[in-house]
Design a protein that fits this description.
Number of strands: 6
Radius of gyration: 18 Å
CATH architecture: Beta Barrel
Distance between the termini: 51 Å
Strand content: 15-25%
Order of helices and strands: HEEEEHEHE
Strand order of the largest sheet: 1-5-2-4-3-6
Structural class: alpha/beta
Helix content: 10-25%
């Protein structure tokens, strides 16, 4: 009985490992990164805005390999940042996830830098509700340092 259990657990472990490897190699990675920003990052001061799925688009995103936006993971960014690129916003740590996000969406306000009046990049962070959007917009600073992985 013990050998059968160990064999089953081993098969389950291998299967889980294969699924994780296949899932993370899809391009728009839906994983959260716990390590601090590496030295291969650049830091920009950017305008941070928030959006939720209340409009006609819902939680759909522009990244072809991601189906829906996820709170604490999805951010809309300028086309200078490719889909799947990782960014870290330290001031959002423990407020919206752990502060690590993946570029998975675009938007006209982000692309035109409307919120910053053309002076800085705009990162639009996905949140789960309109109340959270309003709360973050009122309580958090408009401009924050953003660590962008290369």
């Amino acid at each position: 009985m013990v050998k059968c259990y160990n064999l089953t657990m081993t098969k389950l472990l291998y299967f889980t490992l294969i699924v994780v490897i296949l899932y993370t190699n899809t391009g728009c990675v839906d994983t959260v990164y716990a390590a601090p920003p590496a030295s291969n990052t650049r830091v920009v001061n950017a305008r941070i805005t928030y959006y939720c799925g209340r409009d006609k688009w819902g939680s759909r995103v522009a990244c072809p390999k991601t189906i829906r936006a996820n709170r604490g993971l999805t951010v809309a960014a300028h086309p200078d940042f490719k889909f799947g690129q990782k960014i870290y916003i330290p001031k959002l740590k423990n407020i919206i996830g752990d502060g690590y996000f993946n570029v998975q969406d675009r938007g006209s306000a982000v692309t035109s830098r409307l919120a910053s009046k053309g002076k800085a990049y705009v990162f639009d962070v996905y949140v789960s509700s309109y109340n959270e959007l309003k709360r973050n917009s009122r309580k958090l600073p408009m401009y924050m340092d953003v660590h962008i992985s290369r």
